[in-house]
Amino acid sequence: MRTIQGPRGGWLVGVLAVGLLTASAARADVATERPGSILIFPKVVRDGTRDTIIQITNTGNLVNHVRCYYLDGQRGRNGQPLCSETDFELTLTRQQPTHWNVETGRQVSSLDPFGTDGSGLDPGLIPPVSPGFTGALICVEVGDDGLPAGQNKLKGEATLFSFADESKYNAIAVAAGANVSKDNVLDLNNTEYNACPAMTRFSFNSDGAPDPVIEDIGNPGSRVDTVLSLLPCKLDLQNGIPTPVTVNFDVYSEFEEHLTGGTTFSCWTSFDIGTLAQLRSSADPSNPNGALTTPYATVKLTSTPPVVGIAESFYTDGRGNTAAAAVNLYTEGAGVSTQIRLSDQ
Amino acid sequence: MNRKAYRVISAAPAEWDERRREMVKVARVALLMAVGGLVGLLAAAPSAQALSTADKPASILVWPKIVVDSNGLFGTCSAPLGRLCSDNSECAGDATCRSAATDTLIQLSNTSTTSGGGSKQAHCFYINANSHCANDPRVVCQTAAQCSGGAACVPGWSEIDFDVVLTRDQPLGWYASSGLQHGDFPLEGAGVCSTPPGRACSRNSDCGFPNGVCNVAPSNLGSSVPPVPEDPFVGSLKCIEFDPAANPPVPDHTTTRNTLKGEASIMLLPGSETSGVDVRKYNAIGLQATATASAPTNVLQIGNSTGGDTGKEYEACPSTLILNHLFDGATDPMSVGLGANSQTGVVRTDLTLVPCGDDFLNQIPGRVTAQFLVFNEFEQRFSGSKTVDCFLESQLSLLDTPNWQRSIFSAGVSGTIAGQTRIRGVGSAPTGRGLLGVAQLLVRNNSTQQDSGAAYNLHQQGDPGTGTAPDLITFP
What is the ipTM score, two decimals? Predict the structure, then answer.
């Protein structure tokens, strides 16, 4: 009997070792430059003046099924985000890229002429978002059965655009560990999936300050504003329950001045950081009591629960022309465990 | 030993004996596989997540694309799509050459707190990738058409270096065209004497005898950022984190390493009433340092040595870069939106690649062959390659042919709007085979013929693995 237990034991040790080591190898926080199993687009807009193109690619050599959720963060009659979700499914063949405009979605049609928008293997029926939509998009790798599965092969980008202006960011990817459980609760706990970051950080032009280069070319009256969009990593898409979030800011100016502040929101938020005096320039002519006295600053964000997000800077010249540029936030460390509750199929 | 013991206790018939031997073999194979798996995964586990990064602080920062063109000398033709030009005569037919005054805002921050090491020094290199006319090296050119007398436009390469000292948590920003000179830095204050109190000082001997102490607060003293050496300028920037506490400062492999982060904002200012500013922003790419500091200190080993997992001073550059893009010449998919504001346009993607390794000491740039594997939305695959000699900046559809409409990156050839391009660096240059890069989406408005765009970081996949030569940065 020992000779039979021997191989069993050996295989068991092997499998256990593979499981443990694969799981530990996957431990990290989120990433914006490598594929993952959950993709988060923190800012998706269709508000009449701006629109969004989504690009998603399967970087693997196996077919990848994906469930996606639009989270509607526009404010309802009570002034709070609607926090409702619309979901749909995609199927991407090996290495397949796909794209769609959130205003139109994407239809399944084999009649799209060669080289036109819609040409290619349609990944599935993608619904358009409603007019006025501002919110986020979350996509999750699933198996043939529609339940979560971790291949870690998804990557994505979003292009926010208005007339003659584009800004683009990479989707935030959360890698899956070795054992993704077949249920609709995604545990972002560094075991099933990587945890969201403990801290995010970005550098910015002090909000409301003029831009020196725009001023130098003889176009005075410029200003730079930054809009921060944040999504909590704790989501209940099944019940549409908004997650309350508290965010703390640690701001550092070029003089090494340290300022602190905070804000709260529910479900999803996108706000001009200049609404907080600690992130606003003292040179902002429209609101001169800003605390920052240097042209550039950096800010650390810690929150409960952890958040992911992007920053988008708007450069306005003296003639009123505006250009936007989005940038992914830096992340540090692994935050506390959170859950994303998907809707039942 | 097991076999011997087995034989001693065995009282079974011969076939049982044989069977048990087989089972023992199976057990050994299983255990071997388990051990092999353990070893393999132990070797793979750290490298699986240790690559370059664009969203974590690091010890080497690379800004692949820095552009300055204060007078808007260089532009692109409205037709053929993306052709480089400085004058309408370089474009086809009635097409115009559109240019804009351009500058790059560089932001560099120290994420270190007091407990995390405090001040840090960045030793930086501007890499000038301008080409010059063969008959007049003072003239910067993009193509031979911009040189007089039919002279060739010769690619060039040179570097200038400088130091920036950053205090804890300090952000800094400067425009590449102007840099930061003494007087521009935010913290340049002199020290203050303890005795007599309040006296400005730079050393203890400036203070009262015998016990005067000059208290020098953390500052940017010792920093100077020159303007880029030419205008127009195109090139890249690399910064290496040094430990300022060491004398002389050396690359930082202390426990408080990996504290630098950076961003670049390329700003285009067409200067006309109808066209406003356009800004393209990306994160600097970081290579995180390990605790290993191999001699000599002026040769930085990025990735493992060829023979195995040894000597790695910095995490490896990835084996593959992944670029999601819209195929060049595709009708702007964004033009379907925005209702009354809708205008049609044509999209294209501009790619910048730089080698991970460079030899600044001997002025030998990194040279890597980039292999491109392109997938369209039909899952069809194309491939091509191009040499990256120090710096490559090109519209995608001009990488493989001068006629963009015949390119594998052209929407007319690929047949779909979106694509995925996997970029793999190969070669045997002493500086290595790694590549880093950044992309720009450009949209040409059909009515105004003006470009607008957005920059974004590339994705990455795969550790180059054992047996691949490391990338090396050598500096004076």
Answer: 0.87
